[in-house]
Amino acid sequence: MDIYGFIVAGSLVTMGTLGDRIGRRRLLLLGAMAFGAASVLAAYATSPGLLIGARALLGVAGATLAPSTLSLIRNMFADPRQRTVAISVWVTSFSAGGAIGPLLGGVLLEWFWWGSVFLLAVPVMALLLVLGPVLLPEYRDPNAGRLDLRSAGMSLAGVLLVIWGLKQLVQDGLGWPPALSMVAGLAVGVVFLRRQRTLTDPLLDLRLFRSPAFSASLATYLLAILVVFGAFLFIAQYLQLVLGFGPLRAGLWMLPEAVGFVVGSLAAPLLVRRARPGLVMAGGMALAAVGLGLLTQVESGSGLAVLVAGSVVLSLGLAPVVTLATDLIVQVTATISATIAIGVAILAAVVLRHVGAGAQPQGPPDPNPSGPCAGKLGVVKVSKAPPPGREHGHDDTGATAAATSRRPGTPPRPSEPDAR
Prior knowledge:
- Helices cover 69% and strands 0% of the residues.
- It contains 15 helices and no strands.
- Helix 1 runs antiparallel to helix 2, helix 2 packs antiparallel against helix 3 and helix 9 runs parallel beside helix 14.
- 44% of the residues are buried.
């Protein structure tokens, strides 16, 4: 389940600098071709090993998309106002995908086999391959130099070791394997940073972090992405594991938060015409804090009004923050550091630990749960017994979830791997 995020996190820096050398449009199109092919491979995987391998390939291909598109935006829009609008549309496209994806995925899982969800990417990638060469200009850095393969390997190894250690630490508690993994990852990171200082053409230019605007924007982006992805992951699991909603119904109830993110992203360029970006971002984070406060009041019997209201307020607050932080980062460089993915992995690991515990059979629910968080969103295992069909801890991410979410009465296809 985790291999996709691991590979994306470890490959972002490498792919961002690779685009400078081979051309940003070329990297985007190569990534789209690989993503489409890997999606087909994942859809028809006949074993867990093949599915994991396909997900790893999807991670490598997926790591090319964001750096390439941001690099192209940076080169295509030199005017700051136009660039801010372009980035707001870029963020909006992610939000629209977040709204459409769960709905289409829910429909497919209601009527087809689990692998059909992977095929959603194929027509999108095909359209990009057809229109990309016609509509997108090519840009490359004529002074990019050679790609340092040793630094690329160190970047991937260091990120993977740290993220794996963090997730194991949250899942199993403190122990030697996660501790050694994180220490090894940090050691590789130190060697990586020292190597960058000695290279004529470094994989990651450390001078970027001397810019206060870049460092502050990157930290803000990290915090915003960590919060928004963690919260949305929790909400999706709550709707399915606590309330027992199917994939399609859960997707419909997550639509308002995606719409809120779209509205907030498109509003960002208008807001910065009336106030400084720093003030807009501070106001957005304050509004997001209100949304998070509402989400802390969600209980198993509180209904959906509080959940929807909290998620919409959170989206409206964080969307301008993400948009403007991305804009400020792109002003300095088109490469977004993989530390963002590390931050997401930390909160996702915490969320999955609690949700996973709640999905396991715990016996009859305690009618009088105790503790400061009893009955709240975070304590799934005492909020409600697992819905029918999920008594064995199935997760709704990847093949296992898709198989358990199949429309009742629809037999599994022979090609479905047993991901349990």
